[in-house]
Fold these 4 entries.
Entry 1:
Amino acid sequence: MKVHILKGLIVLGCCATGFLKVTAQLSPQDAVAQMKRGINLGNTLEPPYENAWNNPPAEEIYFDLYKEAGFDVVRIPVKWDTHTGENSPYKVDETWMDRVEEVVDWGLSRDLFVVMNAHHEEWIKEDYENPAKRDRFDSIWSQISTRFSNKPEKLIFEIINEPYGLTRIQNDELHERVLSIIRKTNPVRNVIIQGHNWGGSEELIQMRIPEDNHLIGSFHSYDPWPFGLEGTGSFGSDYQLQVLDQKFAGVKAWSGEHSIPIFLGEFGCNRSAEYNSRMKHYRAYVDLSLSYGFTFCAWDDGGSFRILLRSLRAWDEVKDILIHSGPDAPTITMLSVVQDTLISIQWHTGAYIHDSTSVERRSMTGTFTPIAVLPADSSIYLDHTALQGQYNYYRIISHLPNGEMWQSHPLRVYLAEYQPKIRAYFLGEPIHVPGIVEAEDFDKGGEGLTYHDMDPQNIAGAYRPDEGVDIYERNGTGYHVGNALPGEWCEYSLQVEQEGIYTLDVQAASMEGGGQLAIQIGENPPDTITLPATYSWLETGITSLTLSLSSGEQIMRITVVDLPLFNLDKIVFTLNTMEIPASSERIQDLCVMQDPSGDLLVMHARSSTFRRVALISMSGSIVASFAKPDAVVRIPSTMFFPGIYLVRAECGSLIHHKKIMIH
């Protein structure tokens, strides 16, 4: 398309409204570049009569609020039908024309762009082939064009809103005919065109483009359906964002091919939608519009799509998304309760260089206030002062060197009233040892106290469905714990009936083998074992280890150390036959070390004499024994192999034990 743009600026005079009429006109491209962020004055001048629907008559202060907020353009939908005569010459009521002009001038006098249209004109859409109806619509636009011909270039005409009912051919013909009427009195004014049906992106792309150099293409979008218009479902998945991006990319390609800039005349999300999804929806449309160079105009009807609370002269927080966000603004990537009363906020910042980052929070009824000011490169904050029993709302602010700021879209997370976690026996009493510990019978108490699982859901849903550990049914033969990742753990209260050396037979199933888990009981250090492959998720193998346990109640923790995945069924505890007498003094008084030659040295911190010292293997066999030895007992390295042993030392009436690793 050949584009002709007038560059000169010649002042001709001053019109009655106080605006200068000039011969120059912004090109469509320049206009769209300047009017980036916009809002609709919806459900106001397009009902049958002003004040007929949910909003009071328009007030001048609205335009002060629009300007102060930072909007560049206001779209004013106008219904002409109920204010126009039914017979030729189809005169528009002078009072109505004056009223529309008054509202339009409120915007223009504040240096805002204003888009004025013909809205809810169902009569022409439903009976377009009637010549009298076409003549009436043409007369309306002839009167509008004449009345507003002296207005500044920031007034833009939009021929018709969402021409649902017209075929593509009828809509093309209507636009071409009305545009020729407008050009008689407004030869270079920018005019918005829109495709048939509901004026979507596909319809714009299919439109026959009039021969004109001052056109702006428009489309409306509340996608995805039904989320945008009705608020059902959710929004924010990668797939949904990809589909929306493809829509914008298609319009951008059409725009580039025809050198026609784009005006997104309506978009929005019903206020009944889930909060986080609604905020993400507005943010997605803002980011895409600015990324592709479109002007956007959010729909505000004062009701289900309300942005300005007109009676209170106050804004919904969607306004801050429309004004202070964009593709280079920060984005909250994770918001979650991580422990009891601790909320984690994670984000990434945009490409702009900024001085600092602040985290803001509000309650369900309050306003956003800063709770932390952080270095510019920060990307995570842990809030330990969050409000319990309600939603906490967060947003991230990037402060730029020039004093401006970029804001993330806000998100919220619910923090329940803190209930202290208390450990309790799952079976009503500690598990008795010797005996069997079923993996699924870990203590009650919850995440962080008696177990840790990275996913809060029991994915399999068996046995203990309300807790985070993944428990699976074993085809009617019991249960096992599965799908456990490194770092996850469970704890069990044990009642060790008798002190001694125990063999633990760990029964687990693994398709590949090589997975590792660590077992720690009481004050003993953890022992790590590697599980063999059983080539089945149900058939178990046995991996054994030997531990020395004191009598009494103590906690056993089982921790997953490494993959591959395995299913843990149970651990069988068996007491070995070797007797170990009880003693209240052991590890702290007995000193055992290996000298450079590899010999083992045994000493006592309080006594200079031993009655007997013995080195015992973990199977219970006595490797070496010394009666009435010297104060320092040397056990030659030739008497043992590397491994885990138990040193038993008798001093007077006391018996001491110490578990050691010999290299």
Entry 2:
Amino acid sequence: VLAVAERLREQGRRVKRLTVSHAFHSALMEPMLADFAQALDGLTWNEPVIPVVSNVTAKQAEPGQLSDPAYWVDHVRSPVRFADGIAASGGSVFLELGPGGALTGAITESVDAVGVPALRDERGETQTLLAALARLFVHGTKVDWAAVLPEGATEAHVDLPTYAFDHQQYWLPAPRPLLDATALGQGAADHPLLGAVVQLPQSDGLVFTSRLSLRTHPWLADHAIGGVVLVPGTGLVELAVRAGDEVGCGVLDELVVEAPLVVPEQGGVRVQVAVGGPDETGARSVEVYSTRQDVGTESGPDAWTRHASGTLSTDSAATDTFDFTAWPPPGARQVDISGGYEKLTHAGYGYGPAFQCVRKVWRRDGELFAEVAVPQEQRENAAGFGIHPALLDAALHASILDAAAEVGDGAVAEEEAVVRLPFAWNGLTLHASGATSIRVRLLRPDPDTLSLEAVDDAGGLVLTLDSLVSRAVSGEQLEAAAGAPGTDALFQVEWSELPPVAGAGEVPEATVVEARTGAGETPVALVTRVLAAVQAWLADESAADGRLVVVTRGAVPAGGDQAVTDAGGAAVWGLVRAAQAENPGRITLIDTDADAGTDAGTDGPDLGPALASGEPQVAVRGAALYVPRLVRAAGSGESGLDPDGTVLITGGTGSLAGVLARHL
């Protein structure tokens, strides 16, 4: 069967694989005919009230024919003569009574007639049924409106014009470019997100160019994360896949998203997709850049931001795919996702109508399944994409909608929501283009990683993704990305002096751990001693409402030109910072002067002002208090690395390490 289907596709014919459990109406049904006949003998049969056209004989059924069990046994084994039956009925208007409109298309292909489905998938029943009645009425079918409309609605009539309404739009047309890509010496990209393509003869590479804005691509406004409109990660994937198609590389081996691509409210961004020349295996590099349109014609390195980089290849490793024939899969339990997108909005995911594409979600033993379809307004647009970014992005929503279904309505407000965005795509292959609806299977081996398979409604493979790693993105990162790109990404810690704190006094019910390197004590020994003290205090239930204060001396470079004088104390700060993150509000780090309390008979510094400040980390220098703050660093323009030296990167097999290695 699959071989025949493939042969027909090669001939340009439309082929659809039926999602059925058995080969009905064929010789393969003969083993069950005897049992089927025995089951039918126990039923009570009646003659039909209205005439019925038989799909076995393609004629109007004779009296007694449909009430004979032998007819239905023969029906299971015989071919369905649907087209012949439609032609034999002599009708010109047909009403399909069923859950969808699967037969309406077959009717109009069989005869020159009007087919009207009473119900449609994913559409409101009341509206669809009333629309069906209206279509029947305008095609000459008599409708009892009194039985359909509210009481009294049929008593008054309104005269309508005897001519057709003349529709005319008055929207100002968008300005058209005076010159197309060909006139500028470039090639047309033939893609909704790309305008032109330029070949680079010296490297056998390509550069795609485009301009994106909310005016030219208004559906992008429906992807606002943390209040900032971003091109979705799936949009960057679509750009890379389109570039790969141009050079015969059908596999996106890896694409690492380095910076979000912000679409401004006013104006637009210029986009370039650069494809490198082939290496010895045929693989090519791919990079996505952008610059704000208001930057002008500046061409320096600071004008452009690289948003993603990766690798394209020609071949993909053959892998077993999931069998989507039985849908939804047996044993899968449907997830209630009603109100899910409202919960995601409160969590920072501002998905508008264009991206609210998830229709249903099921869960089964670590697997997630979903039905995803782009809205009707985007369906015509989808034909120009490999896969519409909103459709692929929504396929990923199944995971967070499933998580949102298990979270109460108030949970998002009680806890600070963490927004995660796609970071590293690996092993993505697009098998078919232009899909408007897909069925998806998601696997999540760990909280930040997932894999995906997608097929169309006929079961044809659309896309496979080996892995996608996500990472958390803060509101500050999004705000920085929305500003001037590439100019404020480097930060450093600066110790700032606090104003005097009123109300300082004795240390209030605090356990103090002295973390100063003693005579002959190594940094490792000091850290081990402090770790044991911190763990013991955290394990003490009586200290649950108390505060732990870890005091070091000369462990941080705070207060002017002071340097670190206690390496062991500096290591303690790294250890206790991790403990603070795991136990917020319970531990305070205080660093004192290197010579504080060293004279015989003197006490250490007063810790009251430092504790009264409420800061988790404080450096006491005389009477002044200093706290660490992140500030933007003014770059010197000089690299601190020796270009001829060796750099050790731990975790070198990960995606982030790969980005760093390529940068170096």
Entry 3:
Amino acid sequence: MLKRTTIISRAFLLFGLAAIIITVLGGRFLFVQVSQEIDDVDLETLANERWTNNEPLEGERGSIYASNGDAIAEEVTSYTAFAVLQEGYEGAIDDPAETAQTLAPYIDMEEDRLAELLTSDQFQVELGAGARQLSFEEREEIEDLGLEGVHFRPEPRRYYPNQAFASHVLGYIDRGTDEAVMGLEAGFNQELEGEGGSMSYQVARNGVPLPGNEEEVNGAYDGNDVHLTLNSNIQLALEQAMASVDDEYNPERMIAIVANAKTGEVLAMGNRPSFNPNNYEDITNHTNYAISDHFEPGSTLKMFTMAAAIDSGEYDGDEEFESGTYDPGYDHTISDHNNGEGWGTIPFDEAMERSSNVGFSKLVNEVMGADILYEYLDRFGFGRETGIELPNEAPGVISEGDLDAMYTGFGQSSAVTPMQQIQAATAIANDGQMMHPYIVDHIENTNVNETVYESEPEIAGEPISEETAEEVREQLVEAVYGDNGTGGAFQVDDMSIAGKTGTAQIPSENGYLSGHGQNIFSFLGMAPAEDPEIVTYVAVDRPNLSEDEQGTQPVSTIFNTVMHQSMQYLNLQPDESPGYEEEGTPEADSIELEDVTGDRSEQAAEAVSEQNLEPFILGEGNRIESQYPFAGEDVIGGEKIFLVSDDNWEMPDMTGWSVRDVVKFSTATGMNIEHSGTGYVRDQSLEPGSEAGSHDSVAVEFAHHEEEDENDEQEEEETDEA
């Protein structure tokens, strides 16, 4: 009986313990069921994280477009290589040492470092910056190595299809950090940069998505597209011309800007040294000289000094001054550019044409005063940023004081940027209205197909009157076409040019650099002269010139090429430039010129003659390689048509040729022409019949028939006296 009682007691004890355990566990399960937490860990969240796959969605960076819609910076698909290391996992690295030895040269990594990565205790590893943003061709090269365990994933990569095209304007994206560096890429990074999203879905133990499960998507947003005012054709012509000058003259640097005089739109902008944004590792110059560098401009600033003098009402163009040298006091002597010889007593109206430093310093010191000059320089926007939509614009430095004002008047002492000169020149081109320069036309949000920003032409000020602007343009025309003008090299076929040359001295520790070619040579010009549509600035810094070459040669190669191309691409109508007024030329119906390139020389000459034109064959080749004027252009009966059959030819006798003929010859052959005077060719530096080529230069002197007759009579009188 006692034994039975003991058994029953034990049973009740066990039952009680079981009940307590069940109660505790049940309570715990109930607590977990209700709270869904264990030790402050949310079980639902833990389950979701374990059985949910999250994939990032990339927002694509916006593209940058030229004015014609061509993409000049865009996203393309690239590939990043990575290695799976987990042993036993299908597709893992099989032999780390051999893989490191084979792969290292393809991803620019030391073999030892790669071997260390491939033997680390991780499931998979990234293979460094050299394995990122690989092109399709680079991926194929690595795949052809047959390396087990090396895999690829697609990623966006920034690509610049036109290579060095406007590279300092665009900037670039650093592949290692994905950071925007310089240019519009950096300045408009917030607008261009996309916003990432994600996609999540439930998966089974093997990672396969569960059937019937809905995906949760947080959409990504693409960055905005930025559309520029840059004209692809003009920019390309500028890049090619600058590359040609770079090859031939190897200058320290070059700067060029082309702008619409009526609106302020920047049509082209270039720098040298340049770089390819796709291979930015080779960059040697991070500075956009067109906006971020200021320097003493030289004589291009004289047009603004003259505008100040005229507009202030203090100017009398007929008043005369003694050129050569000028001692204004202050223990300084100012000299004209011809070693201080000058041209005797001349009127102020000739100061621009002859580029007289003495004349402009006297205008400042004796005619209008330093205060008026500084007031007008401020009106023209010098000394402050233009506000163009590019980062790191320099404000320039305008000097102070009476002596500095005299030097500033002819382009020394004060420092300005090329973009400031372009902006100020629009006032002279645009009848007194100065246009704010801009390079961004509009910005598009492609997610909703909406224009979120649109530029409009903006008047930056009216520093001078319409009458002043017109008078300054007339003086600038004389600087190009006048008998004593310094800008004769900048005459462009069928287009009148108004502009001013500049030869800026470069400061050094011991004053200014000296020696042949040790200057910044420039030209600031506009066309057509009577009502300009285009303003262009070109500067070439310390080109390698031979002793008989002038700084205008590399500058005019760029300027003339760009202006000619701009005329075509902007559909500007040819005008009658002052240098092309041919005496006694009768009006005639125009003739559309046939294309004779590729024809035999004799047949080409015959075809041109049948059009009532004068063929002029250069070279001894059997077939015509090029012609000028070009096929399809309108010409006048009796015009010379230059047909080039070879790279070398005999120098023609140019006696009696018009300026138009000489310019056509220069365009057809690539030969540089240095000329003086107006009218018809009277003398040339290269003897007729001597061997010549496109890299040669020839000096040509023009004179009117009356001058030739007077010279002949004078020579006869001198002969009789002898």
Entry 4:
Amino acid sequence: MRTFSRLRNFILLLLVVPFLPACNAGARELLTRVRPVLRGGQMDSSSLMASMKRLEENGLQVQEIQKLAAQHQWSNESVASLINLLNDKKFGAVDKSSKLAYAKHAKIPLKNKPRVAMFMHSLERNGANNFCLHLIRKLMGSQAFTVIFAPKEGPMRQDFEVLGLSVDIVDPSSKDFLVNLEQKIVEGGVGMVFANTIMRCDVVNLSHKLGLPTVWVIHEAWPQDQLDYYAKEVFMMKSLSSEMIKEAFSKCGCVVFPSNVQKDIYKGLYRPNAALTVYNGIPLTQLDAFRLSHDRNAVRKALGYGPEDFVVLHLGTICNRKGQIYTAQACADLVEKKHCKDLKCLMVGARYIRDHEIKYIDQIKETARASGLQYARWEDTPEEERGQAKITLMDIQADVLRFYMAADVVLVPSLNEVLPLVICEAMAFERPVVCSAIDAIPEAVDDGVEGILVPPADAASLSDAIFKLYQDPELRRKLGKAGRQRVLRQFSYDAMIARYGEVMDELIEDNLESKGPSVGDEPPQTSASSSNMAPLRMVGGWTVPPLNLKGTAETSACQVENPSKIAGRTILVDMDNTVVDWDGMFIKRYGRAIGADEARQKEIESKVRSREHFEIEHNFEEQERAKVMDVIASPGFFAELEPLPGAIEALKEMVDRGVDVRLVTAPHPVCPGPCANEKYDFLLRHFGSEWIDRMIITRDKTHVVGAALIDDKPAVTGSAASPPWNHVLFDQPYNRGVEGKSRLRDWVKWEEILSDALKL
């Protein structure tokens, strides 16, 4: 009985904590960390009970966690710290109190955090830069990322600008580079630096000079005696030197490596207490949504490959260190000597910028021609001829998920690599991988378990490994399944994000303790130099211009140019079928799930769009309801919802005109954790990070205070008999039998309807 009680309480924690009003963001992190384990099925009841037992052996009860979360109103960072405490295998009674103290202490309001500048080595689309984009997307609600600095233009500028960040191009080759950069940092009120890749050693040295806390992420694995060669010859960074790199290592207070092997490569250059390992995580929401929503045969057909083709994928910038020449040689051997006539090789990642890369592409062409293999460049091939060549090269692509889905085997025969994301992404797609046994790759792939490891620069071994997989479909399936489990177990995206947030908070706290007021104190104001300029604020010794808080609850009616009649009032707004077209997503996914033809699809749309019952499943036959629930719980369902016409524009207008808008939404009971997580993703994409604090996720809206609640549900009920708001119906077919309530049929008329409902 006691075992059942503990299990019940643990599950209760997972389901209930996200709806505590004070900590929904932090609990969302907690839930999404645990979600893959529960939903993925790899934690059975006995494993769950073992985790509970370890938890209690360490002196913590589940009830204590619930009480702490509610009592201290923990923020996102605080709950992330608690997650680390729960998951830390080395956790014991000795350090329990210090970890709990950190969890309690980590609550620093976003407005009191320093502005963060991200320094990148380019704006090209590659693994290192995608890491920055993913990190910022997830941390914008808890860290004050403000500006991106890069040495040259690139296609990723728009990705960051969509997030509301400014992008500033600075030329490291200029003789005044550091002087100009220092001026930009000071004038921009930057209080913290996040430097990405070893090539930003120049920025790390400048940051140290300015006394700014710095996180430096090293993606490369350059031998210490070849730092000059890699900087100047391989990456063409003539302004860098081994002396600059070594100086940066010696001065930086936080150096992050994505693998232990790589950390060992630079041992002796950094201070021991300044280095740590954080594995790069994989964001699975979009990846899994793609897997669910696309047919593999259709994806292959679009690339020119048929069901009988054996597709070997090599994804990554085509250059010497990625080893594509060995892929070409191995494929030539497989076709000529092992008679793999249906083998097709696709190399994605060609660019024609650097001379040594162009020469390398020419070598690949020559290898193919010398072996009598047909070679083609995708972009130069007529559509009807695509996929016919034995070796196809394609330029660098922004969207790469389709290639994983099309592939039978993914190759990573690199000569110099740390731990490329392509390995984890391939495994997440359940594709077997063949990789060089170098650097940190063996930390991600066990030979014969998730893939096959081969010596670097060994085309014969590479050919043998591919041939082994070519001959054995069951082995491919087995390795692919194991790879997926490895990703869920070791490369949790939420774990990575939480750890980086924790690292940044630790640096901020250290600076606050050494330079300024304690956490929670109001920062003293300094006088502005102009009446038109908002006052600067002091944060732990930094003089920081105020963040752009337009649209937060702090905006009052007197601060807006054209205040609404309802300015100053709080308006609560539901999301599903009120702000977003929930029905549209369901219609599309349900039809796909049952393989509906055009006529059946129209029937589904008619049934859903004109339905009588609010609960979607009640409009279907009993035997169809399980499939309905599966569709709702499918990955990406809530993240990919489309806004209703005029909804987002209306809500932003309301805020601009002094209305305090709060999005109050209930997670679907069939998938509360993923639903809550994906709704935050939707919010960031369509509203921006400044709306994070406007989101309230709860199953009971009757305790949320506001003047009005705009909601499509016919009757919004809960534990409070008399809710503190006036229910305004957002018009839908299933609520048209309700009388006596104001009704909003078009977002254009929001002010008129709300004014009437509130009798203004």
